[in-house]
Amino acid sequence: MANWRLHPQLDRDTANLGDLPLSRVLVNNDANYPWLILVPRKPDLVELIDLDEAAQAQLMTEVTRVARALREVTACHKLNIAALGNAVPQLHVHIIARFRHDAAWPNPVWNAVARRVYRRGELERLITPLRASIGLA
Amino acid sequence: MANWRLHPQLDRDTANLGDLPLSRVLVNNDANYPWLILVPRKPDLVELIDLDEAAQAQLMTEVTRVARALREVTACHKLNIAALGNAVPQLHVHIIARFRHDAAWPNPVWNAVARRVYRRGELERLITPLRASIGLA
Description:
Two copies of one chain form a homodimer. By secondary structure, chain A is of the alpha+beta class. The first copy, chain A, has helices spanning 8-13, 53-74, 122-134; strands spanning 14-19, 23-28, 35-40, 78-83, 93-98. Chain A has three helices and five strands; from the N terminus they run αβββαββα. At the A-B interface, helix 2 and strand 4 of A face helix 2 and strand 4 of B. Strand 4 of chain A pairs antiparallel with strand 4 (78-83) of chain B.
């Protein structure tokens, strides 16, 4: 994973929760929804199907681990899980906690409402229990 | 899989390509994008993380098989893969072929432009090579 670097747009829009064996776990700085992003730390990945079978299985394990933690911490009504990558080509998986009262429900979150950055302290109050639940140091 | 039934909205909006060991493969009747949907044929599934580990691995195998076929047949520029389920609660995975000249690019497809149903013959010309490439009878 020596040649891997996080895409600058992902870096700019997120905070870093830590690394799982394959993926970096990010939280999107958009307080409209608790929104995590997993980025496999291997260079030149674009599509989910670019991963070899072992890495794909590992990613699925990590998606499950993070999605369960997100649901547990937020008590959300629905999870949205997606690998799109039309705007940012580096392979990344969105894991988003949705509520029937959130800003975009029932629509998908992309291009729904303007980003609302977290206030000081608000982000820490989300990150701390998520790190514990995911098992990130 | 005796107690499983396809959700009526998915049934109404799609054509049936056939069954893989776990999932039914559907094509969304929206000619704006070549758009497949996988539905695991087990009752009462809502979230990806509701699947046990073996079924999750099988679903990932089937997503890969279908996504590779879709890319091969359409020569698309990008794949979009997503499990959302805010509107239709039955677990289903979207696998969408995206082009830099398509109706919604670079935005996600949901709520982007009005559905355009396939003309007679047009759907068959997509389904026939897809069935062959996926390996559905």
